[in-house]
């Protein structure tokens, strides 16, 4: 049985966790353009998540995306993977009620900050530097994969590849993205699509939607009142459903 050491605990991991992934600085040339074409320079993400994650910011993040966490909780997962760790806040919160949480990000400096936040905020999540296009996990290693503010930075082709990997390692995928009503573009490359556009795209890529709705972040209810986030819970559709969707298109 293979074992490895990660940044979260500096302890030898459970043998059912994956082998150590490749370092971000050594990613293949095939996958590098996917991040550069989306305009996601690593230093820009590091600057975005540079502020210390205090308890106030942590709780604000949770309240901001409470509908997403409720959707996760309803699935009653035992093993959860987050793609796009950011500050680590989301996975830290999920680790309060889920026994096994892993969160990945392309940037090793961000992962190191997540480890610090995890310890400070008493989380139980494990953080790994990994390429989202090449998840170093076996098939069905998790019950659910989730992300927030991730998919809107990618093209249709990239989204297809990312979802293929996520649906390989987990049966269900939960995603939250800003929709067309979102007021700003934090990096300038966001694709702000409507709920209908996301439904069409995800259906065309071969996924069945169990949940598809817009929701209002907590702060929007007080300051703007708009439902400017889109939430989807999806799983890979059966071959018959995919063929039916193609024929009706």
Structure description:
- With 249 residues, this protein is of the alpha/beta class.
- It has a single domain, classed as Vaccinia Virus protein VP39 (Rossmann fold, 3-Layer(aba) Sandwich).
- Helix content is 37%, strand content 19%.
- It is built from 10 helices and 7 strands.
- Strands 3-2-1-4-5-7-6 form a 7-stranded mixed sheet, sandwiched between helices.
- The longest helix is centred in the middle third of the chain and has 14 residues, at 156-169.
- It is globular and about 40 Å long.
CATH first level: Alpha Beta
> What general form does the structure show?
globular
> Could you give the count of β-strands?
7
Can you name the CATH architecture? 3-Layer(aba) Sandwich
Structural class: alpha/beta
* SSE sequence, one letter per element: HHHHEHEHEEHEHEHEH
With strands numbered from the N-terminus, the spatial order across the biggest sheet is 3-2-1-4-5-7-6
Structurally, the number of domains stands at: 1
What oligomeric state do the depicted chains represent? Answer: single chain
* Poorly predicted regions: 1-5, 8-43
Topology of this structure?
Layout: H1 32-37, H2 42-48, H3 55-64, H4 66-74, E1 79-83, H5 89-94, E2 100-105, H6 108-120, E3 126-129, E4 142-148, H7 156-169, E5 170-178, H8 195-204, E6 207-215, H9 218-223, E7 229-236, H10 239-248
Parallel strand pairs: 1-2, 1-4, 2-3, 4-5
Antiparallel strand pairs: 5-7, 6-7
